[in-house]
Amino acid sequence: MSARKHTALPKARTLIEALPWLTRHHGKTVVIKFGGNAMVDEELKRAFAQDVVFLRHAGLRPVVVHGGGPQISAQLDLLGLESEFKGGLRVTTPEAMNVVRMVLAGQVQRELVGLLNEHGPLAVGMTGEDAHLMTATKHFADIDGERVDIGRVGEITAIDPGAVQAMLDDGRIPVISSIARSSDAEDAASGASGVFNVNADTAAAALAAALGAETLMVLTDVEGLYEDWPNSDEVISRLTATELEKLLPDLASGMVPKMRGCLHAVRNGVHTARVIDGRVQHSILLEIFTDEGIGTMVVPDANTIEGAA
Ligand SMILES: Nc1ncnc2c1ncn2[C@@H]1O[C@H](COP(=O)(O)OP(=O)(O)O)[C@@H](O)[C@H]1O
Ligand SMILES: CC(=O)N[C@@H](CCC(=O)OP(=O)(O)O)C(=O)O
Q1: Which chain positions carry the site (Transition state stabilizer) (predicted)?
Q2: Which site among 110, 112, 216, 300 is 20 to 30 Å from 65 CA-CA?
């Protein structure tokens, strides 16, 4: 055997280590939520695109749902408009809704589509408005038991995953912005304000459930769900749906829609929902190559699903 073959052996071993995971996930749909806070630099975004393309070429069916909260806030700021969050959701005036749509669909989604397509004709961008993908009604925030009007924030009432399935069947990578059409026909006819701003974690979770995805991966700007945030950095590595449900009332800010989304996903057929650190380069591949995973994994209560981890 030549020395050259020996030096490549660790690489071969690394690939083979991933074989059980890849075998289990072959042909499976994985919904990956890329949070706006994790999109901190160009290199990270490029590494994210590489990971997603890797999954696609390894035989999985990745779907990307992206966020863009900080990017929306920056644009609102430039326009002299205020950003206010209630219960982890942006208070969205009709004016702000136009900015949300412009930033998510016109900026963040375009950038991710471009990065993915550096690897071939793979990514297709769409919003929840396209082909009736996501339909919503007005969502009211629940602040200390009180129903609060937060403007054009939507609550998803229906998902029609047909267009996404068709794209996946065609070998494409759908890249989805979390904007929904209104279920009210008159509202829908009223222009840009006929759409709703949906939190991207909520949208990703609803889509994962509707697609019957194997896994929901949520990439964010923390290592996972901290047990006692902000006092300690102890990450909860694994918890069941019921355990998570008990924790929900104590969660704060951005973690609220994220963990509610994970709970919704695993209660509706998704085998695992994971929160992982998107600030770490190639976090998606690390999650695959590390036996126990790198962040927080939520599993259904009676975890009878073979090979769910
Ligand atoms: N228990 C917790 N564990 C981890 N992060 C938490 C927790 N509670 C609140 N957070 C906050 O949630 C943030 C992640 O949500 P968010 O800012 O909406 O990110 P993204 O843009 O990725 O959706 C963290 O940066 C942290 O400030
Ligand atoms: C209703 C609501 O809050 N919508 C979010 C949509 C974007 C998002 O969720 O982005 P991240 O994943 O980066 O937080 C917003 O306007 O910021």
Answers
A1: 33, 258
A2: 300
